[in-house]
Amino acid sequence: MRALGRLRLGVNIDHVATVRNARGTAYPDPLRAALLAEAAGADGITAHLREDRRHIRDEDITALMQGLRVPLNLEMATTPEMQAIALRHKPHAVCLVPERREERTTEGGIDVAGDIPRLTDFVAPLREAGCRVSMFIGHDVRQIEASAGIGAAVVELHTGHYCDLMAEGRSAEAARELEALREGAALAHSLGLEVHAGHGISYDTVAEIAAFPQVMELNIGHFLIGEAIFRGLGSAIEGMRRRMDAAREAMA
Ligand SMILES: CC(=O)[C@@H](O)[C@H](O)COP(=O)(O)O
Ligand SMILES: NCC(=O)COP(=O)(O)O
Predict the structure, then answer these.
(1) What is the pLDDT of residue 3?
(2) What is the pLDDT of residue 133?
(3) What are the residue ranges spanned by the domains of the chain?
(4) Is ipTM beyond 0.90?
């Protein structure tokens, strides 16, 4: 199967805000990072407005909505507060994620199958406002089918477990997880969902995920912001873009 289109790169700038907030300064500015990312070839910007505002804050979303040329993908929990914020800004995309105050990062996917009536009602006004609604889920068949059932346009498959297994050198388990992600991507695509993937992706793990023909977008943040310390954000993004393109070309 050939690639279905150019693989888009969404750059997540959450951790520019993490560094800013560590010292309570006005810098580094997430919008400035986002504009640099745009110039380096990012197809979109992702920002996660957490309920505890540990990194991205409300005023960052306002600045990004006003300053960006590329689309904004707003990640958020399924709370009334977040829904009201999304409906006020109407970003290009809204990605619904599970959130726990105590977690260090997003640990799993959202339980769509276990929350169908509420999530159907939650998604409807976002869709009516013109946002592309994405569900951040694991590769579980039930979650993929439920995402299609509630009217989401997109699923973003959580690649964090695969990336962790790779980092720990657990290659047999990583291969099984990669296969499950591959099957999940194929199922989601067959149900008419646009397929994205993200979380924990680095130069070491991007090629295998970029090679899934159904995947249209990767969202990558933490690794790129870390790599930017050593080589600059533009160069870090260009390095990721090259690896994504090489993986897609190898499929053709
Ligand atoms: C939903 C997701 O996987 C990430 O985009 C998210 O932003 C992770 O949260 P932190 O950035 O707070 O680690
Ligand atoms: N949705 C995943 C994302 O935006 C980036 O995740 P990470 O690369 O910061 O782990």
Answers:
(1) 42
(2) 98
(3) 8-251
(4) yes
> CA torsion 78→44→216→203, rounded to 10°?
-100
The residue whose two tokens read 């199958």 is 113
Cβ atoms within 10 Å, residue 8: 17
Distance from Cα 99 to the centre of ligand 1, integer Å: 9
Does the annotation place 130 within a ligand binding site? no
Q: Give every residue of the chain whose pLDDT is below 70, as ranges.
A: 1-5
- What pLDDT, on a 0 to 100 scale, did the predictor assign at position 1? 46
221 is in an annotated binding site: yes
Q: Which CATH class is domain 8-251?
A: alpha beta
Left, alpha or beta for 208 (phi > 0: left; psi -120 to 50: alpha)?
A: alpha
The residue written with tokens 């800004």 in the block is: 89
Element (H, E) at 220: strand 215-220
Strands (E), 89-211: 93-96, 132-137, 154-158, 194-198
State whether the beta carbon of 222 lies less than 6 angstroms from ligand 2.
yes
Contacts of 155 (CB under 8 A, 6+ apart): 134, 135, 136, 137, 144, 147, 188, 193, 194, 195, 196
- Ligand 2 near 91 CB (within 6 A): no
